[in-house]
Amino acid sequence: MNYIEVIILAIIEGFTEYLPVSSTGHMIIASSFMKIANDDFTKLFTIVIQLGAILAVLVLYWKQFFQSVDFYVKLFIAFIPAVFFGLLFNNTIDGFLESPLVVAVSLILGGVLLLKVDNWFKSNEEFDAKNPIAHSEISYLTALKIGFFQCLAMIPGTSRSGATIVGGMTQKLNRKAAAEFSFFLAVPTMFGATAKKLYDYFGDGLVLSVPQINYLIIGNIIAFFVAIIAIKSFIDYLSKKGFKIFGYYRIILGIALLFIHYFIYPLSII
Q1: What gap in Å lies between CA 97 and CA 156, rounded to an integer?
Q2: Could you tell me if 136 and 168 are in contact, meaning their C-beta atoms sit under 8 angstroms apart?
Q3: Measured between alpha carbons, how far is 193 from 56 in angstroms, rounded to an integer?
Q4: What is the DSSP string of the chain?
Q5: pLDDT averaged per 10 residues, the chain (length 270)
Q6: Is the dihedral of CA 19, 24, 29, 30 positive or negative?
Q7: How large is the C-alpha radius of gyration of the chain?
Q8: Are 198 and 44 within 8 A, CB to CB?
Q9: Concatenated DSSP letters for 202-243?
């Protein structure tokens, strides 16, 4: 890995982490084109720079993180399914993380879903307009259900934010409320994923060189600033326009990847 690759991957992480397009999928695609996807440090890097994106949420929504202990209880409850299934299917997930083809198929299927979401949950927006306080409280059961939706994102290309936002909308939340809870849930989820990846990395006897440490620092800084811009823009756009543009984007990208793989350049590295 070099500094150019670090900058590219960090920008991709910051821009896509909170959009329903799959940041992991995009980084797998980018690192595959750069021929560094199967490198141990690349796999660590793509997870650890999520800390920068986490910090963006903490900075933008710092007041919510001081509102009550109940807020943290709900995040913990929503986080539990990811811990359980993440540990249970760890090896399978690692295998998926090396397959751009899995990403391509997931992008297309998720894109088709996003084209339908706005119509399926249109009543959420209409109800919230008449009862603006109705979605301000998320119950423990709702938090748990959203947590199960988050587990779908263990398949690269699915999108953690997309899965949790749609999960929230199935629980009668409007788009904005569902998206913000998705952002909050990202904090323990990505922190946990980072801690697990670092533990496994060092547990395998691998070490970080000085240049690699610098890569991680720079990557997190870039991801932080890009994520701040992405979050602000996404919330505003989602509240007004909905998901369709993301659905079309996912489908086009997924089809393009399949075309490239079968007719131009084989992307699969496993």
Answers
A1: 6
A2: no
A3: 17
A4: --HHHHHHHHHHHHHHTTTTT-HHHHHHHHHHHTT-TT-HHHHHHHHHTHHHHHHHHHHHTTTGGGS-HHHHHHHHHHHHHHHHHHHHTHHHHHHHTT-HHHHHHHHHHHHHHHHHHHHHTHHHHHHHHH-TTTTS---HHHHHHHHHHHGGGGSTTS-HHHHHHHHHHHTT--HHHHHHHHHHHHHHHHHHHHHHHHHHHHHTT----HHHHHHHHHHHHHHHHHHHHHHHHHHHHHHHH-SHHHHHHHHHHHHHHHHIIIII------
A5: 94 92 86 86 92 92 87 93 81 62 88 90 62 61 93 86 91 87 91 89 92 96 95 86 91 91 66
A6: positive
A7: 18
A8: yes
A9: HHTT----HHHHHHHHHHHHHHHHHHHHHHHHHHHHHHHH-S
CA angle 67, 72, 75 (to 5 degrees): 125
Q: How far apart are CA 216 and CA 238, in angstroms?
A: 31
**Distance separating alpha carbons of residues 77 and 95, to the nearest angstrom:** 27
Residues in the chain: 270
pTM value is 0.85
Taking the C-alpha atoms of residue 267 and residue 125, their distance in angstroms, rounded to an integer, is: 41
CA 9/CA 23 separation, integer angstroms? 10
In sequence order, the 6+-apart residues with CB closer than 8 A to the CB of 161 are: 17, 18, 19, 20, 179, 182, 183, 186
Q: CA-to-CA distance for 227 and 230, rounded, in angstroms? A: 5
Q: Residue 53 in contact with residue 219, Cβ under 8 Å?
A: no
Tokens of 49: 């720079």
